[in-house]
């Protein structure tokens, strides 16, 4: 790790950790949605919106701190990228839940639960990794595993698309369900963006 003579603003570490913890909350709400009756989904969506707003607040706090800090713990563009990618994850998860409610989906296709399980695991790994930015230790396994999970998510997504286009669903239902599974795939991609940014930061700081 590079030796620095100047003090650094350390509150970023706590804010990144809080943002990642909020993503875990979002992933749990996605899991809850899977087992919920259609009548309970609107309330879950409301809690997800609250979590997404909390994520926005966390992101704005990071940007505000960045704009008011002369010395930062690592490069400013990496702080922007990391905060933005964390925010994207919450946005995509909230969008998926909202679409399920708005489209009044009776039953999600088989395989969506696998998508959400991958997201939940990636959320746990991300929350565990963020505190390690302080020391830049124990991060290699994190980004390797998140990249593996994203590859797994790609495979699940392709199988879901094949299922949607096999003639079982009518055209309108296909459009609705495809939008939902696509947004969940975008959430998996955003987890990979976070992991790639963490890897970039670690390489620069080594």
Automatic annotation (TrEMBL):
It comes from the Bacteria. This is DUF47 family protein. Belongs to the UPF0111 family. It holds the Pfam family PhoU_div.
């Amino acid at each position: 790790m590079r030796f620095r003579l100047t003090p650094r603003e350390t509150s970023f570490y706590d804010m990144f950790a809080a943002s990642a913890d909020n993503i875990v909350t979002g992933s749990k709400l996605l899991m809850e949605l899977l087992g919920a009756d259609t009548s309970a989904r609107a309330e879950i969506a409301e809690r997800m919106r609250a979590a997404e707003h909390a994520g926005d607040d966390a992101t704005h706090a990071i940007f505000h701190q960045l704009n008011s800090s002369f010395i930062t713990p690592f490069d400013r563009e990496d702080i922007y990228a990391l905060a933005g990618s964390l925010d994207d994850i919450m946005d995509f998860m909230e969008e998926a839940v909202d679409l399920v409610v708005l489209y009044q989906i009776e039953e999600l296709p088989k395989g969506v639960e696998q998508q959400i399980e991958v997201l939940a695991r990636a959320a746990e790994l991300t929350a565990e990794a963020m505190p390690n930015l302080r020391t830049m230790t124990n991060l290699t396994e994190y980004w390797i595993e998140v990249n593996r999970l994203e590859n797994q998510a790609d495979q699940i997504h392709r199988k879901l698309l094949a299922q949607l286009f096999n003639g079982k669903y009518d055209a309108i239902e296909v459009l609705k369900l495809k939008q939902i599974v696509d947004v969940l795939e975008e959430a998996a991609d955003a987890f990979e963006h976070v992991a790639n940014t963490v890897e970039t930061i670690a390489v620069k700081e080594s």
